[in-house]
Amino acid sequence: MTLPLEGLRVVDFSWIIAGPFTTLWLATMGAEVIKVESSVHTDLTRRLPPFVDGVDGVERSGLHHGLNMSKKSCTIDLRTERGQELALDLVRQSDVVVENFAYGQMERFNLGYDRLREAKPDILFLTSAGLGKTGPHRQYVTFGPPLVALTGLASITGYEGERPERSIGGVWADHLSGMTACLHLLAALEHRERTGEGQLLEYSMAEAVMAQLPEAYIDFTANGRVWSPSGNRDTVFAPHGFYPCTGDDRWVAIAVETDAAWASLCQLMPRADWGDDPDLATAQGRRERAAELDQEMAAWSRIQDAEALAAALQALGIAAASASNSRRLLADEQLRARGFFVEIDHPEVGRRELSGLPWKISDAEPRIEAPPLLGADTLWVMTELLGMDDAEFATLVADGILV
Amino acid sequence: MPDSLEHLRVVELGGGLRASYAAKCLADLGADVVKVERPGGDIVRRWPPFIDDQPGPTRSGLFAYCNTNKRSIVVDYEQAEGQAFVLALTAEADVLIEGLAPGRLGELGLGVDVLQDENPQLIVTSVTPYGQTGPKRDWKGTDLTAHAATGIAMTTPLHVPDPASMPPLRPGGRQADFVAGLSSATATMFAIHQRRRTGHGSHVDVSAQEALASFTRMDIAYRTYSPDENRMAVSGAVREGPDSTLYGLVPCKDGYFAFQATEDYQWRGLMRALGSPAWAEREEFQDPYDRVARWAEIDVLMQQRTMEMTKLEIYAAGQAEHVPVFPCYTTAEAVADPQMVAREYFVDVGRDDTGSVTMPGPAVRQERTPVSYRRPWPDLAEHSDEILTPILGAERLAALRASGVVA
User: Tens digit of pLDDT per residue, chain B (407 long)?
Assistant: First the structure.
């Protein structure tokens, strides 16, 4: 079956989460993604949990595996001149280079954009340092979780009237910026297909997060209003929130989107008095009395099963969902029915399920292969792609260049 | 400079935030996007914040952001003549992005098969809460319910002292809607590349639940790789419990700052940034696991120093020690941040009837084909004449207007 990026070769120097999340989509959509790794300074996620059975090892991390399916791995010591030359040879035979080292690292490897472009004039080079490659803070050390504080997202997340929230689920900044970069890379690739021109793409993880905060930013720039945490309240819908249910830490999310949905909710509860109250006929009226409504809805929901209540609300056309977690997500009937989870068969960890793709394309079945063992494809890259003979390969391995 | 997607024609149908943002992503990259609205307009036109707090069809800041670079026409596609017109539009387009309920397009006589019979090159991208298939395909969904249905809300915050009184939280704004839109735009680009190889368009099916769930891969891996490990709180399976990683948000003189010190060198750097307090040398704080376990003690000790420093002082001192330390900015502070200012991240876009609005700019800088701002967000039906007249002729346009099919 044809895949969108078949025939495209990507040299992937990226590591941790954001960069590998970008190249994960390229790989599953058909590109040949070659991770250039060091077995001394491995991709950090090879050393981060969860490990199979809790026993650590560079081939055992589920975090790493979930981000690196369908890729190849080639080990090169980029601190050596010979290693740098080999990397450059690989770039000459490739279309895209992706990296997200700290600022200046690629230049220290003598693999900056200018040199790459000299070697391969139509190369697409996607590069990122946490706060961007220009500006006074370009060298600042960035990790996704604390970075969320800088973006303003933390300042508008949290319980009403309480402090900003330190943790956003889903390793937010990393995944969001990785997906954003993938979109732009595909657009630049389209330009390259049409014109033959490569280019430099550069992003800041912080800016990618801020691109999804227009309401809060525009309310400030246009109206001078500074947002603070408002719990689960919404600026449009009401009632709107998580309501407790029976069982341990079970909740149902309810978002009343329309006045008709409100009328249905009043019937279900039943609260004819609310249905007849003209003050509650509009979302604005309901927002003004949100505390009162939330309290009484919580008393109503508390004795009900979260799944059953969500289904009952949905039957009346009211947006509702029980609060899932990682355990329930794996059993989610909707995700299961659509085949969201994928299974890999890996030499060290066996058959394991991992999260799959965020889209389905009718004529492109994603390519799902086990993530590569460290250096699994070094021999193939050197001899098949770069035409190295076996003797030289053996020498370079012995000299520690290909580790 | 040229735009990456200047050759692509996109039709957007159904409105709402998810489809609008998907089409915005392509419009900012140069695609010619025609937004087809029903009489009354995209619902987001009525969502706050409003410019100068004055509601109006062109005054929603959220609408402005999500519809810059697009043109608007109004077609009542609930009527047969309107449907024929949508078919005529997509016959000339590369992409249709639609956010209608699953099956609705077919009920309107505009099913994917019908559209692609007319234009085999057409890519149809459908974005809905749960996707086009499965037992919940007809379920309603919002930003909030997506955060519920993916576990994101259960890990925001990750740990709480008392789950019974602390509900799951959705992240601020409408993050799930945006992620669904972003994923739809990305998937559409894959379909564009696929079309180059196959010669025909495909149907792209994006579920907001799956788009957001793809961010929870670490949590899922915890369950499938190490289900017995006594760190279930890390995976979001259990919220109750102490913090299990050393990163956090700590009060300081003028607000909060955030840090990550999971690695030993980060912790030592942070201590130097805070003036090397004597307590940091204590035996019980030397092991990283001990520091996590004793966070309650450390938090108190740390604040003795941080309450004397501003967030910007801590930011500078921490980064000078190569520690990932950041100020917790309000939106007002972030707009004025020297890095954002130097990179000119925020852009000004405006209409004559609203004035200029400062909004977030491009998330990725493209050297040769940068994101461009070619036109402001459209008024309702602003481009009906220029788009409809060549297709319908002035007379027929007037007739259809009179019968309420177009505006």
Answer: 999 999 999 999 998 999 999 999 999 999 999 999 999 999 999 999 999 999 999 999 999 999 999 999 999 999 999 999 999 999 999 999 999 999 999 999 999 999 999 999 999 999 999 999 999 999 999 999 999 999 999 999 888 888 999 999 999 999 999 999 999 999 999 999 999 999 999 999 999 999 999 999 999 999 999 877 655 556 677 787 766 667 789 999 999 999 999 888 999 999 999 999 999 999 999 998 889 888 889 999 999 999 999 999 999 999 999 999 999 999 999 999 999 999 999 999 999 999 999 999 999 999 999 999 999 999 999 999 999 998 889 999 999 999 999 99
Residue span of the structural domain in which A312 resides: 240-325
CATH of the domain at B310: 3.30.1540.10
Residue B224 contacts A, CB cutoff 8 Å = yes
Within 8 A by CB and 6+ apart from A293, the residues are: A238, A239, A274, A280, A286
Q: Within this chain, do residues A110 and A199 fall inside the same structural domain, yes or no?
A: yes
Backbone angles phi, psi at B370, to 5 degrees: -70, 155
Residue B289 near chain A (CB below 8 Å): no
Residue in this structure with the two tokens 């309501």, named with its chain if needed:
A243
Q: Which amino acid is at B306?
A: T
Question: Residue B252: enclosing H or E segment and its boundaries?
Answer: strand B247-252
The 10s digit of each residue's pLDDT in B365-396 is 999 999 999 999 999 999 999 999 988 899 99
A101 and A247 inside one domain: no
- This prediction has a pTM of 0.98
Say yes or no: B168 and B281 in one domain.
no
Q: What residues in B contact A187, CB-CB < 8 Å?
A: 4-5, 29, 189, 366, 369
Question: Total structural domains in chain B?
Answer: 2
Residues of B (335-354) whose Cβ lies below 8 Å from A: 335, 337-340, 342-343, 345-346
Residues A313 and A348 in one domain: no
Domain boundary among A325, A357, A389: A325
Instruction: Return the residue of B nearest to A149 by Cα.
Output: B328
B393: Cβ contacts below 8 Å, ≥ 6 apart: none
Are the C-beta atoms of residues A390 and A383 closer than 8 Å to each other?
yes
What is each CA distance from B318 to A142, A155, A163, A316, in whole angstroms?
11, 20, 22, 53
> Do B398 and B353 reside in the same domain of the chain?
yes
d(CA A156, CA A152): 7
Q: Which of B251, B236, B217, B226 is nearest to B163 (CA)?
A: B236
Residues B20, B133 within the same domain: yes
The answer to whether residue B59 sits within a structural domain is yes
Determine the Cα–Cα distance for residues A336 and A331; give it in Å rounded to an integer: 7
A33 and A93 co-located in one domain? yes
Q: Report yes or no on A219 lying in a domain.
A: no
DSSP B194-210: HHHHHSS--EEEEEHHH
Token digits of residue B106: 């077919």
Q: Are residues A300 and A351 in the same domain?
A: no
- The radius of gyration of chain B from alpha carbons, rounded to an integer in Å, stands at 25
User: Does residue A3 sit within a domain?
Assistant: no
CATH code of the domain covering residue A18: 3.40.50.10540
Whether A268 is in a domain gets the answer: yes
DSSP A100-138: -PSTTHHHHTT--HHHHHHH-TT-EEEEE-TT-SSSTTT
CATH number of the domain enclosing B380: 3.40.50.10540
Q: Which of B66, B218, B243, B295 to mutate to test the interface with A (most CBs of A within 10 A)?
A: B218
- Distance CA(B265)–CA(B322), nearest Å, equals 9
For chain A, how many structural domains are there in total? Answer: 2
Q: Between chains, do A222 and B334 touch, taking CB under 8 Å as contact?
A: no
Instruction: Answer whether A188 touches B (CB < 8 Å).
Output: yes
